[in-house]
Design goal:
By secondary structure, the chain is mainly alpha-helical. The chain has a domain of about 140 residues. It has nine helices and no strands.
Length: about 220
């Protein structure tokens, strides 16, 4: 295994986050977006949730980095699992329009439930092929690419950028929810585990009435 001086985990996390962003963008392909505002919010959502889906792996590596071999195995396993789940959820979302949830889990753990989703009519080879490619890329980055020099970036700057992104897109969602902006609300609905932020109470305190609260004409 490489020494700590030649092992730059930043390359691996750059790959995993970029891959999460790409997979997440597949969920949004069915939502038409027009104008610079919605496009900007879309990019903010992709960036913030691309990082968020990889946070378990990032935090795990940070906690275990004293034991590098263990940290690498655990981090790659969690990160790869996240990508596989995103791909599977995207397939489910394309077919049925909803994400992995308790209902889906009950079907998968019930005899005959898997077939009821039509899985018996779907070839497993595309999913297995994606898994093989993902596994190969994960191994390539964690064993080879991490040996390359990586630019030094202070962690607090990365944390600040992430917080600004996630706060910005959540504020945009809250405003869009009050204005009933369908584009941004639809984009958020496509994301797995999206946590919406509503601002009705704050807007009311500012004397601004939400469109949701206005009487129908």
């Amino acid at each position: 295994m490489q020494s700590k001086h030649t092992f730059n985990i930043g390359w691996y996390f750059l790959f995993t986050v970029s891959t999460s962003i790409w997979i997440t963008s597949l969920f949004m392909t069915s939502v038409p977006v027009s104008g610079p505002g919605p496009h900007t919010v879309k990019l903010m959502m992709l960036a913030s949730y691309g990082v968020m889906y990889q946070l378990p792996a990032i935090i795990l590596y940070w906690l275990l980095q004293r034991w590098q071999r263990l940290a690498i195995v655990a981090t790659v396993s969690v990160s790869l699992l996240c990508h596989v789940l995103l791909f599977a959820d995207n397939r489910l979302f394309d077919l049925y329009g909803f994400h992995i949830n308790g209902f889906v889990w009950n079907l998968l753990t019930t005899p005959g439930g898997f077939e009821s989703l039509g899985a018996d009519q779907t070839s497993p080879w595309p999913l297995l092929g994606r898994f093989a490619v993902l596994l190969g890329l994960h191994l390539l980055f964690i064993t080879r690419v991490v040996r390359l020099p990586f630019p030094h970036i202070r962690k607090r700057y990365l944390v600040a950028a992430f917080l600004l992104l996630t706060l910005g897109e959540r504020l945009a969602y809250g405003i869009s929810d009050a204005r009933l902006d369908g584009e941004i609300l639809q984009l958020a609905d496509t994301l797995p585990l999206y946590q919406p932020l509503t601002m009705h109470g704050l807007l009311a305190q500012l004397g601004i009435r939400s469109k949701r609260e206005l009487p129908l004409e």
